[in-house]
Design goal:
Layout lengths: L8 E6 L1 H12 L4 E7 L9 H14 L6 H9 L11 H10 L5 H17 L13 E6 L16 H11 L4 E5 L6 H4 L1 H21 L2
Parallel strand pairs: 1-2, 2-3, 3-4
InterPro entries: AB_hydrolase_1, AB_hydrolase_fold, AB_hydrolase_sf
GO molecular function: hydrolase activity
Organism: Cesiribacter andamanensis AMV16
């Protein structure tokens, strides 16, 4: 932002990227017009034991090459329905990556991403987000909340928790959409984001 001479902006983040957007907004609130948080990590909380377990799992499993069936299953968890045909090039790219010398670096990035997410919780600071916030969830998100650690918590319940914790925030649940909601329902996702941004723009213009 500094190098591009952007003083203040709208931030949109997805999953762990949404938690990163929240962290930025909490540390630099004067530089954020609004936040769009898509399937955000950071609202769900983890105990110290749960966080340690997830960190250890990532460290042990991510460096290991996966079979094609495992990779396809991992992709499938991101969608509410069958895998879209447009994911096939990405699956093939992921398979090919395992055969390159860059795979250990890729695995390390994933591992550090999970560790960073767990080491920088934001749930206890959601009330400090004073800029306009849009929460966007796929109604059929299979990854958030964590189904293994928090089987009694639904996506809608977690989304409502976030809405209640963030003052004045808006919430949109997209039907027939999973964790990659912008991939699975691009038209509905874009419509919701543009409606939110246009509302903010109209409000700003009408303010004396």
């Amino acid at each position: 932002m500094d190098s591009l001479s952007i003083e203040k902006t709208h931030l949109l983040g997805h999953s762990m990227g949404a938690q990163l957007a929240m962290l930025f907004a909490l540390e630099h609130p004067g530089r954020v017009h609004s936040l769009v948080l898509a399937a955000p990590a950071g609202i769900e909380t983890f105990s110290e034991q749960e966080a340690a377990g997830l960190t250890a799992y990532a460290a042990a499993s991510f460096p290991q090459p996966q079979t094609e069936a495992q990779i396809r299953q991992a992709w499938a968890l991101n969608f509410s329905g069958p895998l879209p045909a447009t994911t096939e090039p990405l699956i093939q790219e992921r398979l090919q990556l395992q055969e390159t010398p860059y795979f250990p670096t890729y695995a390390q990035v994933l591992q550090k991403g999970v560790a960073g997410m767990l080491a920088a919780p934001v749930a206890h600071r959601l009330g400090e987000l004073r800029m306009p916030v849009l929460l966007l969830f796929g109604a059929d998100d299979g990854l958030i909340p964590n189904r293994y650690l928090h089987p009694g918590l639904t996506t809608e319940q977690l989304a409502q928790q976030g809405k209640a914790a963030i003052p004045g925030s808006q919430l949109v649940l997209l039907p027939s959409a999973g964790h990659l909601l912008q991939f699975e329902q691009p038209e509905a996702f874009t419509k919701a984001v543009l409606l939110f941004l246009n509302q903010k723009s109209t409000t700003k213009k009408s303010t004396p």
